[in-house]
Design goal:
single chain, mainly beta, six-stranded mixed sheet, 0% helix, 49% strand, globular
Length: 114
């Protein structure tokens, strides 16, 4: 059984930083493009950042220059370094493939106060 386990979320102040972690367990190829998604209450999940198996990254405009996605294929892990956090970064963050698998982890809550 494949599981996605996200961690690292917290309540922080604007301008602070966080590093989110995601570990994928189970028998699954980790060559997929991976991504971090964000969901704000009442809204659909949006893709925030993605990274190919070889390390090519993409970001939505609002996080460019502040967030950095990385991965370790041997550890089946993905990270999201989040710097200069803003209140609008608040949400539940999930990692998944891009495009996503049908299953999701529990996510990790990031709350940025102004």
């Amino acid at each position: 059984q494949v599981q996605l386990v996200e961690s690292g979320g917290a309540l922080v102040q604007a301008g602070d930083y966080l590093k989110l972690s995601c570990v994928i367990s189970g028998r699954i190829s980790f060559l997929h493009r991976m991504a971090w998604y964000r969901q704000v209450s009442g809204s659909q999940r949006e893709l925030v950042a993605s990274i190919s198996g070889s390390g090519t990254t993409e970001y939505i405009d609002s996080v460019k220059g502040r967030f950095t996605i990385s991965r370790d294929n041997t550890q089946k892990s993905v990270w999201l370094q989040m710097d200069s956090l803003r209140p609008e970064d608040t949400g539940v963050y999930y990692c998944n493939a891009n495009p996503p698998w049908t299953f999701w982890g529990q996510g990790t809550q990031v709350t940025v106060s102004s």
